[in-house]
Amino acid sequence: MADGTRGYVRPMRAWWKRDPYFAAYMARELTAFAVLAYSIVLAVGLLRLSQGEAAWNGWLAAVRSPFGWLLHAIFLVSFLVHSKSWFEIMPKTMPMMFMQGKRVPGARITQAGFVLAVVCTIALLVVAKQVLS
């Protein structure tokens, strides 16, 4: 403006707190930091494994400590929320699917994602048990 005023400036501070939808969105997005943190924890474990038995045992002691258990519990909750949000958004990001001439409901796609994740997790645990036994 000619008189030096800036006119209306939309406030951006805490914009996401004004609407519950955006607050939930930001909470879901925050879980991505847990994924990052856990990948760092695993990378450090891999590094310690390469540094020898003493370093590996020190890392194992750290993740088995009460703080390590608490951190893993936080990671687990964060991963469940993160996974749930990804499965819920899956039908919105894929092309429309049709089966027998009818559109597949988004809830079915989400349920299929959950079921597939559970089946793959169980299969992975069975294989891991076989390998580690």
Summarize it:
Helix content is 74%, strand content 3%. It is mainly α and 133 residues long.
Topology:
Layout: H1 20-50, H2 53-64, H3 66-93, E1 98-99, E2 102-103, H4 106-132
Antiparallel strand pairs: 1-2
Write up this protein.
The protein has 133 residues and is mainly alpha-helical. 74% of the residues lie in helices and 3% in strands. It has 4 helices and 2 strands, in the order αααββα. The chain has helices at 20-50, 53-64, 66-93, 106-132; strands at 98-99, 102-103. A two-stranded antiparallel sheet has the order 1-2. A hairpin with a 2-residue loop joins strand 1 (98-99) and strand 2. Helix 1 packs antiparallel against helix 2. The longest helix is centred in the first third of the chain and has 31 residues, at 20-50. The N and C termini lie far apart (75 Å).
Structural features:
74% helix, 133 residues, flat, two-stranded antiparallel sheet, mainly alpha, 4 helices
Low-pLDDT ranges: none
The structural class is: mainly alpha
Task: Assign an overall shape.
Answer: flat
End-to-end gap:
75 Å
Determine the fraction of residues in helical runs and give it as a percent range.
over 70%
Q: Treating each run of at least 4 consecutive H or I residues as one helix, how many helices?
A: 4
N-to-C order of helices and strands: HHHEEH
Radius of gyration: 23 Å
Strand order of the largest sheet: 1-2
What profile does the largest beta sheet have? 2 strands, antiparallel
The percentage of residues in β strands lies in under 5%
